[in-house]
Specification:
The complex is a heterodimer of chains A (about 475) and B (about 90). Chain A has 15 helices and 14 strands. Chain A is of the alpha+beta class and about 475 residues long. Chain A has a nine-stranded mixed beta sheet with strand order 2-5-6-9-1-10-11-12-13. The relative contact order of chain A is 0.10. Chain B has a domain of about 35 residues: Histone, subunit A (Orthogonal Bundle), CATH 1.10.20. In chain B, about 35% of the residues lie in helices and about 5% in strands. Chain B contains three helices and two strands; from the N terminus they run αααββ. In chain B, strands 1-2 form a two-stranded antiparallel ribbon. The longest helix of chain B is centred in the N-terminal third of the chain and has 19 residues. The relative contact order of chain B is 0.08. Chains A and B meet through helix 1, strand 7 and strand 8 of A and strand 2 of B.
């Protein structure tokens, strides 16, 4: 049996968080009353004329720069014609043969090294409206009696990012997406939240014998609503295709929906005819030629990007920890904490686990105080440590009172307390000696209570055991 | 004729239009006349002329990202054949 290599390309749609729509000045936003954010332009009334959103155009350039793209000196909007009620005009305006950004890349760090993922293009377009299918199986198209349309979302600025088929595992696709998402969020151009639909991902998947350079027929998976589901969907489709090839069959080009509940892939009905969008340049919109000084300014304003920061953090930490810190927006706090004297691995564990769980806002944490706590974490009682982390985001937080609560592990201090507990619980002592060894925890608990949690439980354990030995 | 009957049927299908026999005939002839008129352009030697996507020599006609009032609902749905609540009601789509 030969081994197979998955070949994966992604198409990512990102809703920009501009205040207004792509081609009209209706507000963009979640949760408004149906059709309350609409106007002649986004409703496709005859004669209405689109005017592009300058901020959206700047943001796609900004994203393109962050993805190492060439910024087109001339980008042109086109009409993509198709007939569906989520599209009021009968066409979607989208950049087509002259997109704003082409030929970029993003470096994904993996345990086995760094891998460059090509970005084919990033272009601007407008989102479609929201259809609600009513009757039959509610919410589904099949068997619906009629459809209701809310055009509030119609016309929201979208960026579509297309990767080269450079990803070779579901895990790699997931890491790429985590990095891309963090980049987008840090640029401040989108919330990029899959569960809200402001980030949507379709995956093109094929497999080929390892070592082959030929691309085989691919299928497309849609409707995956979290990075974990994307990875599961890709894995399922890869397994399916390998089975088809190995049983002597042929993979056909299909689009699948991933069912979150069952983990199954359902083929969409094959269209009788291939999509025919009859693209042509949008005559109502002038070309976009971003001035060089604008592009230079946007380039200058770029923050240090997640991919670069991961590479830097990896000089001190393993890849997994680096990825968690950077994609969680925690790496700057980690760096400052390490600079204040904390151990790198310990600081990373505390920040990525306990600090996040405590709900403290990383930006509000004083790294010097955090470094003190990280350093003392094994010397102070666990409950005290957790309490300190719960308050570390408070204004003016000081670690000192918590550090003063260092655990008592000095046996000479603990022995009298252990003896007093044993003396006060003679009935339990008898039961214990009679074989009920589970009572050990009871004695330890009593000692912890007497010391208000400050005793080192390991030391207490040993002391109690020794004292109770017959 | 610059466009065939089958091409007209195909375009009508993409636009979800059902055409009667007389409509089909009329549209084939009208679309043919339009295409003939436009094809006059190809009589020119345009080898050195870059394609235009817009009739005017303007670029970067854009607007600031500042909200303006949207349309009141009564105007939004004024011409809608069917409305349910605040939504447009349309036939089920396949």
């Amino acid at each position: 049996m030969s081994t197979w290599e998955p070949v994966i390309g992604l198409e990512i749609h990102v809703q920009l968080k501009t205040r207004t729509k792509m081609f009209c000045r209706c507000r963009v936003g979640f949760g408004a009353e149906e059709n309350s954010q609409t106007c002649p332009v986004c409703l496709g009334f005859p004669g209405a004329l689109p005017v592009p959103n300058r901020t959206a155009i700047e943001w796609v350039v900004k994203l393109g720069l962050a993805l190492g793209c060439e910024i087109a000196e001339r980008a042109v909007f086109a009409r993509k014609n198709y007939f569906y009620p989520d599209l009021s005009k009968g066409y979607q305006i989208s950049q087509y043969d002259l997109p704003s950004c082409v030929n970029g890349n993003m470096i994904v760090s993996l345990a086995e090294g760094q891998h460059e993922i090509g970005i084919v293009r990033a272009h601007l377009e407008e989102d479609a409206a929201k259809n609600v299918h009513v009757g039959g199986r509610t919410g589904r198209i099949g068997g619906a009696e009629y459809t209701l349309v809310d055009y509030n979302r119609g016309g929201t600025p979208l960026v579509e990012i297309v990767t080269a088929p450079d990803l070779h595992s579901a895990e790699e696709a997931k890491r790429f997406l985590q990095l891309l998402r963090q980049t987008i969020v840090e640029l401040g151009i989108s919330d990029a939240e899959m569960e809200k639909g402001t980030l949507r991902v379709d995956a093109n998947v094929s497999v080929r014998p390892a070592g082959s350079e030929v691309l085989r027929t691919r299928s497309e998976i849609k409707n995956m609503n979290s990075f974990t589901h994307i990875a599961r969907g890709i894995d399922a489709e890869v397994a399916r295709q390998i089975e088809v090839w190995e049983s002597g069959g042929e993979v056909e080009q299909h689009t699948y929906d991933f069912d979150v509940g069952s983990g199954a892939l359902t083929a969409r009905r094959t269209k009788e005819e291939a999509d025919d969008y009859r693209y042509f340049p949008e005559p109502d919109l002038a070309p976009v030629e971003p001035p060089a000084e604008l592009v230079d300014r946007l380039r200058f304003e770029l923050p240090e990007l997640p991919a670069a920061r991961i590479a830097r953090v990896m000089k001190k930490l393993d890849h997994d920890r680096a990825l968690v810190l950077v994609t969680g927006g925690l790496d700057r706090l980690w760096e400052a904490t390490v600079a204040a004297g904390a151990d790198g691995v310990a600081a990373s564990n505390v920040i990525a686990n306990q600090l996040v769980a405590s709900g403290a806002r990383p930006g509000a944490v004083d790294p010097t105080e955090l470094a003190k706590l990280v350093d003392a974490r094994e010397r102070i009682p666990r409950a005290t440590f957790a309490e300190a982390l719960g308050k570390i985001g408070d204004h003016g937080f000081s670690a000192e009172p918590y550090l003063a609560m260092e655990s008592v592990s000095d046996t000479s201090e603990l022995e009298p307390i252990v003896d007093a507990v044993i003396a006060a619980n003679s009935a339990q002592v008898e039961q214990y000696r009679g074989g009920k060894e589970g009572l050990l925890g009871f004695f330890v608990g009593q000692v912890m209570k007497e010391t208000k949690g400050r005793a080192d439980p390991r030391v207490v354990n040993e002391l109690v055991r020794a004292r109770l030995a017959p | 004729m610059a466009i065939s009957r089958d091409q007209v049927l195909y375009v009508a299908k993409l636009a979800r239009l059902e055409l009667g026999e007389d409509e089909l005939e009329r549209l084939t002839s009208e679309l043919g006349a339009i295409l003939d008129a436009v094809s006059k352009v190809s009589e020119l030697d345009l080898a050195d002329v870059p394609p235009t996507s817009h009739p005017l020599a303007v670029v970067n006609a854009w607007a600031a990202d500042e909200p303006r009032d949207s349309l009141p609902l009564e105007d939004v749905v004024r011409n809608a054949p069917a409305v349910e609540g605040r939504m447009f009601r349309v036939p089920p789509t396949t």
